Amino acid sequence: MKSYEVNFDGLVGPTHNYGGLSYGNVASQSNSQQSSNPKEAALQGLAKMKALMDMGFQQGVLAPQERPDVAALRRLGFAGSDAQVIQQAAKEAMPLLVASCSASSMWVANAATVSPSADTADGRVHFTAANLNCKYHRSIEHPTTSRVLGAMFANQQHFAHHAALPAVAQFGDEGAANHTRFCRAYGEAGVEFFVFGRSAFDTRYPAPQKYPARQTLEASQAVARLHGLREEGVVYAQQNPSVIDQGVFHNDVIAVGNGEVLFYHEDAFLETDKMLAELSSKLAKVGGKFQSVCVPRSAVTVDDAVRSYLFNSQLLSRPDGSMLLIVPEECRGNERVWQYLQGLTGTGGVIREVKVFDLKQSMQNGGGPACLRLRVALNETELAAVNPGVIMTAPLYDSLTQWVERHYRDRMTENDLADPQLLLECRGALDELTQILKLGSVYPFQIN
Ligand code: SUG
């Protein structure tokens, strides 16, 4: 049976702004308080989805969330009408209002961890929503994420959904940003690779000194258990704490994998040789031949990687077995990175082509091409069981761009977030969106 990797991209929500909310994420910190352009952000994301679809890849779309999250503000004690809640928060606790307005759900690599049916004990595709509990503005995403994923993958015969892990730092879980899967073919059993930043219960593991390690070993192990993965089909590795301290807040900022290939920076992991040997032997047991492409620090520094987002790229398989790398424009702007990429594609290795996309609006908050997509490997039967409303087509692309043009503002600052009119605009837009994507009622304002 045919199988595919389907990339579901997060549609940027109408409140996209630069809130400076993510300590440890260099771009988020350095662009704090700048004015953003939500319309441009959403159109940049849609252009990437359309381009991948036009190249013949399976492409889907994941809906944004209701923001401002008035219900979250009420849980923090703000009261009265919706407009009063927003006005009171703006007056007394602007950082909380900004957090409740974040469009951060666009980075759907953090929405969930997904295990394809060929890897799981019950033969279903498993999803665990990520609790994202390292940052308040992201910790409020998972209830709606679960409802949206449930509406997209509604068939219980093929899809199993797990609620987010307990919302404490010891089970900090950032979803697919710290998870990669290696396989010979998407429909065959593979090796799932979980990368953690620290252990919450075992003090023998080192931890970063400056910035938080968002993913714990115990969270990764819990997800592997929930999904019914075999021990032989799982490899755990620790991120190098010193790269976390240099701004690598997720593993997908320093490594990306696809098929039988891992593309990574020399400094990305601890005990790299042991990890590569385990990946290689476990993949061999399911018939695969592991290949690694290491980028040496002498060619590209960790700082270059953080600034250019070289590794936050999408590594995609082409029909002839070669691979294509989708990188952000910032890679072209970095001389060393661009030179490295020219060499990489010119040497006859597996990565043959690089395509560049302008995703500046998202990049300025630390979100590159890979952050914007959730990968779901599906066989033909499972793909047919996905809600067809969320699969990208030329007409859907047209409807979504028109929808963005109609509803989105082209400039957003903190003052705009305090405007209660914005809430009404967003709800109106999202109500229409759930009809376009045929999701039913998934937002708090639709179900309460
Ligand atoms: O969680 N930025 C996101 C970026 C997530 C990138 N995702 C992956 N690497 N997979 C984060 O730090 C910034 C929001 C602000 O500052 O307004 C933010 O949440």
SSE map:
Blueprint: E1 3-10, H1 26-30, H2 38-54, E2 59-62, H3 70-75, H4 82-92, H5 94-101, E3 112-115, E4 125-129, H6 136-139, H7 142-152, E5 159-162, E6 179-182, E7 191-196, H8 217-226, E8 234-238, H9 241-244, E9 255-258, E10 261-265, H10 272-285, E11 291-295, H11 302-308, E12 314-317, E13 323-328, H12 335-346, E14 351-357, H13 360-363, E15 373-379, H14 380-385, H15 394-407, H16 414-417, H17 420-436, H18 444-447
Parallel strand pairs: 1-2, 4-5, 7-8, 10-11, 13-14
Antiparallel strand pairs: 1-15, 3-4, 6-7, 9-10, 12-13
Bound molecules: N~2~-(3-carboxypropanoyl)-L-arginine (SUG).
N~2~-(3-carboxypropanoyl)-L-arginine is lined by residues 18-22, 25, 28, 102, 104, 107, 109-110, 138, 177, 249-250, 252-253, 365-367, 371.
What's this entry about, in short?
With 448 residues, the chain is α/β, with parallel strands linked by helices. It has 18 helices and 15 strands.
Model description:
With 448 residues, the protein is of the alpha/beta class. It has a single domain, classed as Succinylarginine dihydrolase (L-arginine/glycine Amidinotransferase, Chain A), CATH 3.75.10. It has helices at 26-30, 38-54, 70-75, 82-92, 94-101, 136-139, 142-152, 217-226, 241-244, 272-285, 302-308, 335-346, 360-363, 380-385, 394-407, 414-417, 420-436, 444-447; strands at 3-10, 59-62, 112-115, 125-129, 159-162, 179-182, 191-196, 234-238, 255-258, 261-265, 291-295, 314-317, 323-328, 351-357, 373-379. A hairpin with a 5-residue loop joins β12 and β13. The chain is globular, with a radius of gyration of 21 Å. The chain starts with a strand and ends with a helix. The mean pLDDT is 98. N~2~-(3-carboxypropanoyl)-L-arginine (SUG) is lined by residues 18-22, 25, 28, 102, 104, 107, 109-110, 138, 177, 249-250, 252-253, 365-367, 371.
